[in-house]
Design brief:
Largest sheet: 3 strands, antiparallel
Number of strands: 7
Helix content: 10-25%
Structural class: alpha+beta
Number of helices: 3
Strand order of the largest sheet: 6-5-7
Shape: elongated
Order of helices and strands: EEHEEHEEHE
Length: 106
């Protein structure tokens, strides 16, 4: 998330933009980046959600917005689900079979 300093306080840019251009963020809500880009501060991409709603919005989707399902799921040996597209792009190499197993049903 982008941040700025105002009067000696560090503030999150997306929250400042939302409050200046839309209004106060509803109580007990967080701003969800519908574009899945945490550095984005476009108010058209910011949706106030409850913390529970925000968690549900991220189920099955990586931080770059890829669906984590079928052949795009890698399960790390620690049992954490990972996005295959992001893993392969970041690593620039094929998946290590010792590290991951394909979760596609056989």
């Amino acid at each position: 998330h982008g941040s700025i300093r105002v009067a000696g306080k560090t503030l999150l840019v997306h929250r400042v933009a939302y409050e200046l251009l839309v209004g106060k963020i509803p109580q007990n809500h967080v701003l969800h980046h519908a574009c899945f880009n945490p550095s984005c501060w476009n108010i058209e991409h910011l949706v106030p959600l409850t913390p529970g709603g925000h968690r549900k919005a991220h189920i099955g989707i990586c931080r770059l917005g890829h669906q984590i399902a079928g052949s795009n799921v890698l399960i790390h040996k620690s049992s954490n689900r990972r996005c295959a597209v992001c893993y392969n792009t970041k690593r620039g190499r094929p998946i290590s079979e010792e590290m991951y197993r394909d979760s596609t049903p056989s």
